[in-house]
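Budget justification, computational time. The allocation requested in the original proposal was used primarily to generate structure tokens for proteins on the priority list. As evidence of use, we reproduce two of the resulting records. The first is shown immediately below.
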Amino acid sequence: MKIAIVGAGIVGVTTAHELAQDGHAVTVFEQRSAAAEEASFATGGLLAPGVLSPWSAPGASQTPAYFGRHATLRLGSGLTLADLSWLRRWRRAARASARSGEPLPSLAALERLARYSHARLQHLAESLDLQFEHSPGALLLLRTPRDAQALAPALKALRDAGSTIREVDADTARTLEPGLSHALPLTSALHVPDGLAGNCRQFALLLRQAAQQHGAQFHFNTRVARLTGHPAGVQVEGESAPRPFDAVVLCAGVQSAALLQPLGQRLPLVALHGSSVSAPLREELHAPLGVVVDVQTQTTIARLGQRVRVSGGAELGRSAAQAHPQTLKTLYRVLGECFPGGVSHSSGVQVWRGARPMLPDGPPAVGATAVPGLWLNLGHGASGWALACGSARALADQITGRTPDISLEGLGAQRF
């Protein structure tokens, strides 16, 4: 089949590789000058367990605070009606999860896809010998008993799926992560031995090369103006007519909603911006060995080679290019509280802000649309890195007419 993919973030690149490996003629259109330059550029790095990523799904972590210095979700002045509608639906789902203490079906679907994706990523890394920065082991810091209560639905989803999660005391936590500050107030921690962090953009660039070896073509600095149906096609900005394809896969992140609307396809997709700070390693003994999640502030600190990356924050309705000053203060504060002296702030520090394309129940939209030939693989939100390899393989199987290895219940666009 002749297949077009719109978007070359981590989801678009993994989709391109799976389809090209299956023997399809794949063309990828990307408006930026390289792969993984937007939401996939400097992600927090947490790969597994996927549902423990802050903002992975409503009810997966703390109920957000909206105001003050310690707000975990900041509301901008540019809020639209669509943003407010999305927020209502997210809050409603989070409250329902908190009341029941049980994982919502969406959280179970997310965990199922995350586990499958983790296995697929490991297969790709080993079979293709992809050498990307990664660090094993995940530790969730519980500063207060309330932190553990907030995680209860996500932890149940993980344990129901067979994940190993050990609750450890503060001393054991510091044995697992020797660089963790002894001055940090800590009630206990959760250790996930199979946890993993990795460099998303590095993996994407390596996999893009593998996709090209299978014949996939990447067109950068190319903006898709519109999609067509009957037959499926892609019209590139500046061209007078659409290019026909047997199938089109939309992986364009937050731009996807505008491309779908003229075709009568509406998705409650919003941009929830997150930020990260990456700094060079200063002292190995004072830096994390793996990935550490501070549950209270919903921030992630990951070791990526000779750098440490702290990420977090969520900003809705704010279109500014720079991260919110209070978000940055929180990231620097948490890094200093947890691993003082672990990084150098004098040079080589990278500050990044990116848009997470999120749907209000958490999981992405993966599968066919009502428009023949148009497929979706989008809306992965904060879990794009953790879900990309699995959703790409499952979608490639669907397009080819095979039954995917996992159930895609709860992941179709029809749920909206």
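The second record produced under the same allocation is shown here.
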Amino acid sequence: MVIGTEPFSITGMQFEFLAEDDLQFLVHPLHPWAGKRPVTREQISSGRFIIPEASGDTFKLIEAHFKKERIEILPLIEVAAEDAVKHFVELDMGVGIMPRWLSPRRLN
């Protein structure tokens, strides 16, 4: 048994839905998007994003969401670990995209 995100391609396994999560933008407190709601489609298209690496499930969720919304995003940095996303955002290097349950409530 494995608890994780729903795989995009399943062969020989059964998937049972347990819960859902959503993705959110993670920004430095001094970033122009901090406290601004909602962020416009144009701002998203021109954003500098820090996202999990392309081979991971989180990347595939991000890609599928923005494709459905017809918004093209260009990653600035792809990283192997979600903690690395947080560290780059703490340095105000761009906007992180990650599941809410992995995101800190506040950046230091």
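A brief technical remark on that second record: Strands lie at 23-26, 49-52, 75-79, 95-99.
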